[in-house]
TrEMBL record:
Record bears the keyword Zinc: yes
Summary of the function given for this chain in its UniProt record: Converts 2,5-diamino-6-(ribosylamino)-4(3h)-pyrimidinone 5'-phosphate into 5-amino-6-(ribosylamino)-2,4(1h,3h)-pyrimidinedione 5'-phosphate.
EC number from the UniProt entry: 1.1.1.193, 3.5.4.26
UniProt binding sites for substrate: 162, 178, 198, 201, 244
InterPro entries in the cross-refs: CMP_dCMP_dom (IPR002125), Cytidine_deaminase-like (IPR016193), DHFR-like_dom_sf (IPR024072), Eubact_RibD (IPR004794), RibDG_C (IPR002734), Riboflavin_Biosynth_HTPR (IPR050765)
Gene3D superfamilies: Cytidine Deaminase, domain 2 (3.40.140.10), Dihydrofolate Reductase, subunit A (3.40.430.10)
Recorded metabolic or biological pathway in which this protein acts: Cofactor biosynthesis; riboflavin biosynthesis; 5-amino-6-(D-ribitylamino)uracil from GTP: step 3/4; Cofactor biosynthesis; riboflavin biosynthesis; 5-amino-6-(D-ribitylamino)uracil from GTP: step 2/4
PROSITE patterns: CYT_DCMP_DEAMINASES_2 (PS51747)
Protein name: Riboflavin biosynthesis protein RibD
Pfam families xref list: dCMP_cyt_deam_1, RibD_C
GO biological process, one term: riboflavin biosynthetic process
Length: 315
C-alpha cells in the first residue's frame, strides 16, 4: 500500500477534479500491473492497472489507495465491476471512499461477487488523498502554507527585502511543490510589492503551473483570480491550494484554522529586527498553541533546512 501511495503522486494534479488514486496488481509475489488516475480523471487507476496486466490479473491481489468506485458514469464503468470481471481474487483498499455513491458499497459489491476484501485505513494512502479527503470533510481544498524564514523567524528585512532568504536548492523545491498544486495564493501586499510570477520554473514541469489567486480587495491583471476573504477559499475548484503567505495572510488563515500543512524553509542566517513570519492571530494562551502540529517530513536542501508539519485535528 505504501508503494501504491507513492505511485499515486504521478496523478497529481493532472487527475483533477478526480482524486489521484493508484492501483498495483500483484500475482505470485510479482507486480503484474500498475496504474494511476489519468489526466482529467479517466481512466481510473484500476482500469489502467488491469489494462497493463491483461490475463495476469486473474487471481491477483489489487492494492488500491482508495476504495474502488461503485457507480457507473458516462465516462466509464464502476471499478469494482471491472475488478470482478477481470477475475481479481482480493482487493486491499487504503481508504474508504467518502463519496456517498460508493462509501463502502464498492467493497461490499466485491464481496458479494466472491472477491476477498480488506480495508487498511492506511496513513500513507490517506496522506496521498489529502486534497480529496479535505474536500469531503471540510468542503474546501487541502491548504499548504509555505514560509521561508531566517533562523530568527524573519521573512524579510525591516525594509522589506526578501529575495532571496533561501538558496537555489530550496527555491527549486518550492517550484516542485507548486507543480503539485491546483492553485497558488498570495496576499494583495505580496502581489503589489513583488508581482510574483507564481509559475513553475523547472525543466519539464513548466506546464504544471497552478491557477494564480490573489487574496485582496483590489484588482489583479487578467489570468489572476481575485478572492476577497479567506472564506472564499472554499469556493475554489481545487483539491490542493498552495499558499505563499506574508505575515498577515498567514495569521488570517491560521486564525480561521484553514491550514492543513505548514512547510517551513529555514535559512542559516540571522536578520534581527526584520519582518516576522506570522502576525498576531489572537492566540489567547500558550497552552492553546501546543498539540496542533506534528512533524511529518524533514530534509536538508543545500544550506537550508525544510520541515513540514501536519495539522492535528479531532475529526
Amino acid at each position: 500500500m505504501d508503494a501504491a501511495a507513492r505511485l499515486s503522486t504521478r496523478a497529481r494534479p493532472a487527475s483533477h477534479p478526480n482524486p489521484g488514486v493508484a492501483c498495483i496488481l500483484v500475482r505470485d509475489e510479482i507486480v503484474v500491473g500498475r496504474g494511476w488516475t489519468a489526466t482529467g480523471g479517466r481512466p481510473h487507476a484500476e482500469a489502467a492497472a488491469l489494462a497493463q496486466a491483461g490475463d495476469a490479473a486473474r487471481g491477483a491481489t489489487a492494492y488500491v489507495t482508495l476504495e474502488p468506485c461503485a457507480h457507473r458514469s458516462e465516462r466509464g464503468p464502476a471499478c469494482c465491476d471491472l475488478l470482478t470481471h477481470a477475475g481479481v481474487a482480493r482487493v486491499v483498499a487504503g481508504v474508504e471512499d467518502p463519496d456517498p455513491r460508493t462509501a463502502g458499497e464498492g467493497l461490499a459489491r466485491l464481496r458479494r461477487a466472491g472477491v476477498a476484501t480488506d480495508l487498511l485505513s492506511s496513513p500513507a494512502a490517506q496522506a496521498s488523498l489529502a486534497g480529496y479527503l479535505a474536500r469531503a470533510a471540510h468542503a474546501r481544498p487541502h491548504v499548504t502554507m509555505k514560509i521561508a524564514m531566517s533562523l530568527d523567524g524573519c521573512i524579510a528585512t525591516a525594509g522589506g527585502e526578501s529575495q532571496w532568504i533561501t538558496g537555489p536548492q530550496a527555491r527549486a523545491h518550492v517550484h516542485a511543490q507548486r507543480a503539485r498544486a491546483d492553485a497558488i495564493l498570495v496576499g494583495g501586499g505580496t502581489w503589489r510589492a513583488d508581482r510574483p510570477r507564481l509559475d513553475v520554473r523547472l525543466p519539464g514541469l513548466e506546464h504544471h503551473a497552478p491557477q494564480r489567486i490573489v487574496l485582496t480587495r483590489g484588482v489583479a491583471p487578467d489570468g489572476v483570480r481575485v478572492i476577497n476573504t479567506p472564506a472564499q477559499i472554499a469556493a475554489l475548484e481545487a483539491l490542493y491550494l498552495y499558499v505563499e503567505a506574508g505575515a498577515d495572510i498567514a495569521a488570517s488563515l491560521l486564525a480561521d484554522d484553514l491550514v492543513d500543512r505548514l512547510e517551513i524553509y529555514r535559512a542559516p542566517i540571522v536578520i534581527g529586527g526584520g519582518r516576522g513570519a506570522v502576525s498576531n492571530f489572537g492566540l489567547a494562551a500558550l497552552d492553546d498553541a501546543h498539540g496542533r502540529w506534528a512533524l511529518v517530513e524533514r530534509r536538508q536542501l543545500g544550506s537550508d533546512s525544510f520541515e513540514a508539519y501536519s495539522r492535528q485535528r479531532q475529526e
